[in-house]
Specification:
By secondary structure, the protein is an alpha/beta fold. It has a domain of 250 residues: Leucine-rich repeat, LRR (right-handed beta-alpha superhelix) (Alpha-Beta Horseshoe). The chain is 14% helix and 19% strand. A hairpin with a 6-residue loop joins β2 and β3. It is globular, with a radius of gyration of 32 Å. It binds 2-acetamido-2-deoxy-beta-D-glucopyranose (10 copies). One 2-acetamido-2-deoxy-beta-D-glucopyranose binds next to loops. This is Receptor-like protein EIX1.
Length: 701
C-alpha cells in the first residue's frame, strides 16, 4: 500500500522534527483557557467520569487536552467516545488557538450543532461524528475556512440537503458526511474542494451525482464513497478523477452499462459497483489500465454480463473478487486462475453451469473465503482450500464421495462449511478432528449414507449441525453400545450450548437418549421423518432455550412428558404422525398450539384436541417405564451413538474477536498527541489510512 508507505515516511520526518524543536522549559496552562475548559465541562453530564482529571491547575495535563509546547495555548481538545451528554458551551471560544476539536461519539441528543463553532476560525480539524446532532447545520460553519478535515458523519440532519457552504472550505482534505440523513443532490460546490483526498457521502438519501461530477475539479481525490444512496441514471464518466484509488458506488440505483472510461483510472485499488441495476457487457477493456486493482465487486447486478475470454490475463492481482448474482456463466471463468493472491472469491448465483476446474481447489494459497453457492457447478470436491474459514458450495451439483478430505494433512482453520443441496454420496468422512474450529456444518440434502461419524465429537465449537435429507442410518449401533454407556453423560455435558440440530428426513431408528436433555442451549431440534421409537424423554423440559421442536413422522409412543410445559420459549412444536397417546399435559404452552401439532397419533386427547373420554381414567403423564430407553442396552439408539461420540462446546469469543478488528479512535488520540501543529498533513494522511483500513476490515469482516 503506497499511502501506508508514505505515511510511514512522513511519520519519521515528523518525529525527527519533534525531537529537534522540543526541549523548551515546561509551559504552564493559561488560566483563562483553564476556566474556559472548566466551564465547558460544567455544561456536560460526564456519567462515566471521563473528565475526572480535569481538576488540577495544570490543564495541559488533563485527559484529551493538549497545549502548544511553545506558547502553552490549548491546541487540541479530544473527548472521543466519552459518553458525554448535555450542553456544548460556547466558553470553548476562549480557546483561540484550538486547532483540533474532536467531540465524536458522544450523545448531544437531538440538538443542532452549536452555532458558535462556526466562529472558531482557527480550527483545522473538526470531528463531530456520531454525536446525535440533528436539525439544520449552522451556515456559520462555512467560516471555518482553515479546516483540513471535517467529520459530521453519523448524525441525523433530518433529510436536509448537504449545505453548499462547505465549498468555501478550500483547504479541506477529508470530508465525511456519511450516515447523516442528507437528501437532495450532491452540491456541485463540493467539486471546488481542490485539495480533497477523501469524500464520504455514504448511507444518505442523495439522489443525483451528475452535476457534482460534471463541475468537479477534484484532481487529487483518492477516495470517493457514495454507497447506499438513491443515485440513479447511468454511471458518470469519472475520467477527471484520475487520482482515485477507491471508488465505492454500491447500493444505489445506477442503470445502463459500465462506461469504458472506468478502465482509465490507473490508480484504482478498490472498485465496488455492487447492488445496482447495471446491465450490458463487461469486457477486458473495462479493466485495461487497472493494474493496481485489489478489490473488485460487481455483485448483485442481475443483468450484468461478464463477457471475458477464457485466456484473458488481467493486468491486476486481486485479493477480493465478488461476482455474485450477475451473469458470469455458463463457463467457470478461467481467468480467475491467474489471481493467485485471492483471499475472497464470491461467485454465488452467478449462473455458472460447468464443471469445477481442478485448479480451483489448489491454486489460491491465501484463500480464506470461497462462496460458490447456487450455481450448477458439477464435479467432485477433491479437497478443501487449506486456509479457508468460510466455504459455501451449497445448491450446486457437486457429486461423488468426500472421502479424500481425510487425506489432508494438518489442521484446517475452517469455521463454516456448507455443502447442502448437492449430490454428494458415500459415507460422511470421519476426520472432523482436522477442523477443530468448525462452527457450523451443513451437509443437508445430499445422498450421504452410513452412520453419523464419531469424530464430530471433536468439534467443540460447533453451534449448528445440519444433516437432514440424507440416507443416514445406524446400521452398526447394536454392536458393543455397553462400552460407551458409562461415558455418555460426561460427553453430553459438553453439549450445553449447541444451538441447532437437524437430523430430519433420514433413516434413523432407535430411541432418543434421555441424556440428550443436557443440551441446555439447544434452540432448535428437528428429528422428524425418521423411524425413531420409544418415548419422548421425560426431562425434555430441561432444554429451556428450545424454540422449535419437531419430532413428527416417527414411531414415538407413550405420553407427552409433563416437563414439556416448562419450556416457555417454545414457539414451534410438531409431534404429529407418531404413536403418542394420553392426555396432552396442561399448561399455557402446549394448549396454544394448533391441533395439527398433535395430529395423526394413536390416542392423544385434551386441549387443543377433543376432551379425553372421562378425564380421570387417564393417568398423569408418566410413561410406565421411562427408564426403558436407558436400560434396553440391546436397543441402543443412533442418538446415543452420536451423543457418545460427540463433545460439543461453544465458541464464546467468536464475535468478540471479529468485533475487535474495528479500530478504536482512541488509538488515534494517543498517536497524535505526539505531534503538534506540524502534524496536519500527517493527521489527514493517517485519518485517511485509518478510514480505508476500517472500511476494508468492515467489508472483509
Ligand atoms: C460567518 O458566517 C455567517 C453566515 O454565513 C455570516 O453571517 C457571518 O458574517 C460570518 N462571520 C464572520 C465573522 O465572518
Ligand atoms: C431522516 O429524516 C426524516 C425527517 O426528519 C425522518 O423522517 C427519517 O426517519 C430520517 N431518516 C433516518 C434514516 O434517520
Ligand atoms: C466553484 O467553482 C465554480 C466554477 O467551477 C465557481 O463558479 C464557483 O464560484 C465556485 N464556488 C465557490 C464557493 O468557490
Ligand atoms: C432518477 O430518480 C428521479 C426521482 O426518483 C426521477 O425523477 C428520475 O427520472 C430518475 N432518473 C433516471 C435517469 O432514471
Ligand atoms: C430504483 O429506481 C426505480 C425506478 O426509478 C424505483 O422504482 C426503485 O424503487 C429504485 N430502487 C431503489 C433501491 O431506490
Ligand atoms: C444464465 O445464462 C444463460 C446462458 O448461459 C442465459 O440464457 C440465462 O438467461 C441466464 N440466466 C439468468 C437468470 O440470467
Ligand atoms: C436412500 O436409499 C434408498 C435405498 O437404500 C434409495 O432408494 C433412496 O433413493 C436413497 N435416498 C437418497 C436421498 O439418497
Ligand atoms: C424439520 O425438517 C423437515 C424436513 O426435513 C421440515 O419439513 C420441517 O419443516 C422441519 N421442522 C421445522 C419445525 O422446521
Ligand atoms: C391449524 O393448521 C391447519 C393446517 O395448517 C390450518 O388449516 C388451520 O387453519 C390451523 N388452525 C388454526 C386455528 O390456526
Ligand atoms: C511537548 O513536550 C512534551 C514534554 O517534553 C513532550 O512529551 C511532547 O511530545 C511535546 N509535544 C509536542 C507536540 O511536541
Amino acid at each position: 500500500m503506497i499511502s501506508k508507505k508514505r505515511v510511514a515516511i512522513k511519520f519519521f520526518v515528523v518525529v525527527l522534527s519533534c525531537v529537534f524543536v522540543s526541549g523548551n522549559a515546561e509551559v504552564r496552562c493559561i488560566e483563562r483557557e483553564r476556566e474556559a475548559l472548566l466551564s465547558f465541562k460544567n455544561g456536560l453530564i460526564d456519567a462515566f467520569d471521563k473528565l475526572s482529571s480535569w481538576r488540577s491547575n495544570e490543564c495541559c495535563e488533563w485527559d484529551g487536552v493538549e497545549c502548544s509546547n511553545t506558547t502553552g495555548h490549548v491546541i487540541t481538545l479530544q473527548c472521543h467516545d466519552c459518553g458525554l451528554r448535555g450542553e456544548v458551551r460556547s466558553s470553548l471560544l476562549e480557546l483561540h488557538h484550538l486547532i483540533d476539536l474532536d467531540l465524536s461519539r458522544n450523545y448531544f441528543g437531538g440538538i443542532p450543532i452549536p452555532q458558535f463553532i462556526g466562529s472558531m476560525k482557527q480550527l483545522r480539524h473538526l470531528d463531530l461524528n456520531s454525536c446525535k446532532f440533528s436539525g439544520t447545520i449552522p451556515s456559520h460553519l462555512g467560516n471555518l475556512t482553515k479546516l483540513r478535515s471535517l467529520d459530521l458523519g453519523g448524525n441525523d440532519f433530518g433529510g436536509i440537503p448537504i449545505p453548499e457552504f462547505i465549498g468555501s472550505m478550500k483547504q479541506l482534505q477529508l470530508l465525511n458526511l456519511g450516515s447523516s440523513n442528507f437528501s437532495g443532490t450532491i452540491p456541485p460546490e463540493l467539486g471546488n474542494l481542490t485539495n480533497l483526498l477523501s469524500l464520504d457521502l455514504s448511507s444518505n438519501s442523495l439522489s443525483s451525482i451528475s452535476a457534482f461530477i460534471l463541475r468537479s475539479v477534484l484532481e487529487s481525490l483518492e477516495i470517493l464513497d457514495v454507497s447506499k444512496n438513491q443515485l440513479n441514471g447511468s454511471l458518470p464518466d469519472m475520467r477527471a478523477f484520475h487520482s482515485l484509488t477507491e471508488l465505492h458506488l454500491p447500493g444505489n440505483n445506477f442503470t445502463g452499462s459500465i462506461p469504458l472510461s472506468i478502465g482509465q483510472l490507473s490508480k484504482l485499488q478498490v472498485l465496488d459497483l455492487s447492488s445496482n441495476s447495471l446491465e450490458g457487457l463487461v469486457t477486458e477493456s473495462h479493466f485495461i489500465k487497472l493494474d493496481k486493482l485489489k478489490k473488485l465487486d460487481l455483485s448483485f447486478n442481475p443483468s450484468l454480463i461478464l463477457d471475458i475470454a477464457s485466456d484473458w490475463i488481467p493486468p491486476f492481482q486481486l485479493s477480493k473478487l465478488s461476482l455474485a448474482v450477475c451473469n458470469v456463466g455458463p463457463y467457470f471463468p478461467n481467468w480467475i486462475r491467474t489471481q493467485r493472491d485471492l483471499a475472497y472469491l464470491t461467485l454465488t448465483g452467478a449462473n455458472i453451469t460447468d464443471e469445477a476446474p481442478r485448479w480451483l481447489w489448489s491454486t489460491f494459497s491465501s484463500l480464506t473465503g470461497l462462496y460458490l453457492s447456487d450455481n450448477q457447478i458439477s464435479g467432485p470436491i477433491p479437497l478443501l482450500p487449506a486456509h479457508a474459514f468460510l466455504i459455501q458450495l451449497s445448491g450446486n451439483m457437486f457429486a461423488g464421495s468426500m472421502s479424500s478430505f481425510c487425506k489432508t494433512h494438518g489442521l484446517l482453520p475452517i469455521l463454516t462449511l456448507s455443502l447442502s443441496n448437492n449430490q454428494l454420496a458415500g459415507e460422511i468422512p470421519d476426520c472432523w478432528e482436522q477442523m477443530p474450529s468448525l462452527f457450523s456444518l451443513d451437509l443437508a440434502n445430499n445422498h450421504f449414507s452410513g452412520e453419523i461419524p464419531r469424530s464430530l465429537g471433536a468439534l467443540h465449537d460447533l453451534q449448528a449441525l445440519l444433516l437432514h435429507g440424507n440416507n443416514l442410518s445406524d446400521k452398526h449401533y447394536g454392536y458393543s453400545s455397553f462400552l460407551w454407556k458409562g461415558q455418555e453423560s460426561k460427553y453430553w455435558n459438553n453439549l450445553r450450548l449447541l444451538k441447532l440440530i437437524d437430523f430430519s428426513s433420514n433413516e434413523l431408528t432407535g430411541n432418543i437418549p434421555r441424556s440428550f436433555s443436557t443440551m441446555r442451549g439447544l434452540v432448535s431440534l428437528n428429528l422428524s421423518r425418521n423411524s425413531l421409537t420409544g418415548y419422548i424423554i421425560p426431562d425434555i423440559g430441561k432444554m429451556e432455550m428450545l424454540n422449535s421442536l419437531d419430532l413428527s413422522h416417527n414411531q414415538l409412543s407413550g405420553h407427552i412428558p409433563k416437563s414439556l410445559t416448562e419450556i416457555y420459549t417454545i414457539g414451534v412444536l410438531d409431534l404429529s404422525n407418531n404413536h403418542l397417546s394420553g392426555k396432552i399435559p396442561t399448561g399455557t404452552q402446549l394448549q396454544s398450539f394448533n391441533a395439527s401439532s398433535y395430529a395423526d397419533n394413536d390416542g392423544l386427547c385434551g386441549d387443543p384436541l377433543p376432551k379425553c373420554p372421562g378425564d380421570r381414567l387417564w393417568p398423569s403423564t408418566t410413561n410406565p417405564d421411562e427408564n426403558m430407553n436407558e436400560k434396553d442396552g440391546s436397543n441402543f439408539s443412533f442418538m446415543q451413538e452420536v451423543g457418545i461420540s460427540m463433545a460439543f462446546g461453544f465458541i464464546f469469543g467468536f464475535w468478540g474477536v471479529i468485533g475487535s478488528f474495528t479500530l478504536k479512535k482512541s488509538w488515534r488520540i494517543a498517536f497524535f498527541n505526539l505531534f503538534d501543529a506540524a502534524g496536519d498533513w500527517f493527521y489527514v494522511r493517517t485519518a485517511l489510512f485509518v478510514s480505508k483500513w476500517r472500511r476494508s476490515s468492515i467489508t472483509q469482516g
